[in-house]
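Appendix B. Raw example, untouched.
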Amino acid sequence: MQREYRNLSSVIGPLVVVEGVEGAKYDETVEVILASGESRFWKVLEAHSDRALVQMFESTQGFLKEGARARFTWKTLELAASPDMLGRIFDGRGRPKDGGPELIAEKRLDINGAAINPASRAQPNDFIQTGITTLDLLNTLVRGQKLPIFSGAGLPHNKIAAQIARQAAVNDGSDFAVVFAAMGVPFEEAEFFTSEFHKTGALERSVLFINTAADPVVERIATPRYALTAAEYLAFERDMHVLVILTDMTNYAEALREVSAARKEVPGRRGYPGYLYTDLATLYERAGRVKDKTGSITQIPILTMPEDDITHPIPDLTGYITEGQFVLSRDLHNKGIYPCADVLPSLSRLKDKGQGDGKTRKDHGWVLNQVYAAYARGKEIRELAVILGESALSDADRQYLRFANEFENRMVRQGIDENRTIIESLTLAWELMAILPKNELKRVKPDDIEKYLPKAESEAA
């Protein structure tokens, strides 16, 4: 039975206090009906014996006028889940934004979900090909993994996100879908995402949730939860492999900080709430595979590091929860290199699970180690050459320096529409290794050198 109350006592930023409430529950949906008859929906943030603190999703203007009332519904925020959600665009609260009809729900699911029980988790496994060499070859993405992209203001993370969304695929022919959630993005970026999905045909296998900078700040807290609920339905009810892209998690954390300040909570690091780690974990830990289930959920959260500071609380805590990071470089971006991946600090802790025979190719792991080590040494020699000059370098040093330059210009750099297969990326890696003396290739197997290097040398020639 729904209950109505008329004593809305105060407005504190995005929060409203309702007095004289009985039996209010945390996360319960509240319908606020204004004197004009207009309805707006909120949820309970705090429940006490005689009052409730309610979090709004829209403007609080006019709420305290005579005749306004709050109706407590006994329900939480829910997503209308259906296979027909594929190919659709929704706003940050799961309402159609593409002009299409309301979905006929097969199920109505609580958006708050839950982290996957560790006892029910299956080991992340199998390769997801994104078509981007620095991801596929060096930071291999695995089904069920969560691998964030650490970016900065002005870097092309949105273009990378759109490229991954339209190119990502699994190699075994399984059903694959993309769930894309944008939080607090400018209108131009929202239009960019929707036009990219439409133009490339990727929308047919995708579900989009778009919260723009003009939409209510608090809506950003719900947007990733709607997206992850849609992903859970497609993965565990419809047996699909789902890639979830969340951008920008920094805007999400800023929304949390705004609500925390309105509640007058004691701030943590840099003003963010002390429960930021826990809150982020409730999102990230919804990725994974479940035993006895065919589908999987893989996450790529994207965040912009304030002032490019990787020790900032948002990337810092994200790195603790997730299985690695894919870092973008401002130096490479300034050189005009796209996708400007900073290879050395990037890491996929589960990459070994997606490599080898039957997944990519048996030489993948050895090639990765050799290329990474050679590039690291080449960068060290580049810094040394700035101090001593190239004339002071040995012949081997010059070869490593050439390798580092070619690595950035040929392997890291690729077109925004260039979709490289993992075999093409491995072939390119062998062509680059042909620059080095054969006795320097100590991290790849002799059999692989005999098999792949002669062809790479002939291609390079």
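End of appendix B.
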